[in-house]
Description:
The chain is of the alpha/beta class and 351 residues long. The protein has helices at residues 5-33, 36-40, 48-55, 59-71, 88-94, 104-115, 117-126, 138-159, 166-172, 185-193, 206-219, 255-265, 289-307, 320-329; strands at 76-78, 83-85, 175-179, 198-203, 225-229, 240-246, 266-277, 334-340, 344-350. The chain folds into two domains: 5-94, Arc Repressor Mutant, subunit A, CATH 1.10.10.10; 147-350, Rossmann fold (3-Layer(aba) Sandwich), CATH 3.40.50. The protein has 14 helices and nine strands. Strands 5-4-3-6-7-9-8 form a seven-stranded mixed β-sheet, sandwiched between helices. A two-stranded antiparallel sheet has the order 1-2. Strand 3, helix 10 (185-193) and strand 4 form a beta-alpha-beta unit. It is globular. It starts with a helix and ends with a strand.
Amino acid sequence: MPIDEQKMHAFMGQAVGDIGAAMSAVLALIGDKLGLYKAMAGAGPMSVAELARKTGTTERYVREWLGNQAAGGYVAYDAATDKYTLPPEQATALADENSPFFIGGAWEVIAAVFKAEPRMAENFKTGRGLDWGEHDCRLCSGTERFFRPNYRGNLVSSWIPALEGVQAKLAAGAKVADVGCGHGASTILMAQSFPKSHFYGFDMHAPSIETAADRARAAGVADRVTFDVASSTNYPGSGFDLVAHFDCLHDMGDPAGAAKHVAETLDRNGTWMIVEPLAADRVEGNLNPVGRVFYAASTMVCVPASLAHHGPALGAQAGEKRLREVIAAGGFTRVRRAAETPFNLVLEARL
């Protein structure tokens, strides 16, 4: 085929950038794991020796690491002093775990999906799935660290207030189910903000539930949070004022069955809050940087998780139209988009 030389060079430039980003992800993971970013945050210009000494690492490796980070724009380099600085914006994203912009967990997720590559390559040929619990454990820890900042920045301040009458119920004392709670970040955030309510976190991954219970004790909310191992279609309880699914409905083996179980366990005047990745209904609407990330995560995590349970594999880019169909299959008659961010949509469903 004839090649347009200008387009060829443009694509090669793009590919080099992607290769650099992919190779650098492991260095970002090391920087996060060893506390290199945290050591640089707010410290001003640092020499290689100073950073190595502060973090108990070896100068020769740190010099190469800093060169990579400077080339990628993650740190700034001053040739006159041979020192490196972590700018405040990068520090907010890379070193401050309480920031709504923190992305440190992403590097753990990337490491986990690369480790799953041999199994997933085979799955491409067989059509089989790969459940969450079958992945490297960093998938669970990284996902929690990646999503928690977003929940911290939006859940209590904007998502819950956007639901009709829910904030008042929670303040007065309500019964809440957090289905697919993972390590319990969303459950604990709600419990901290609404001390008169009781929260029940359910997840089918037992190690995640153990971690969630430990986190609740550490956060001082164990008296109003109960975590149990249960699936989305058989978790116990009834009369919930609020049932929430955070970034998990599309992963499930039986999302329509999950919707029906919500209807069975929800109070007649209760609310189902569904938080999902923000996606267009058609492929062309998702061809952007965020869509690229979501499609990658969907291929390696979300679709195989559903297929592991013979599910419909909605995927992270299911789109609002498809989600509404699932919600309606559960018997819900009222659905509205209550809120959205650049990464999430929040649907409110009522019977």
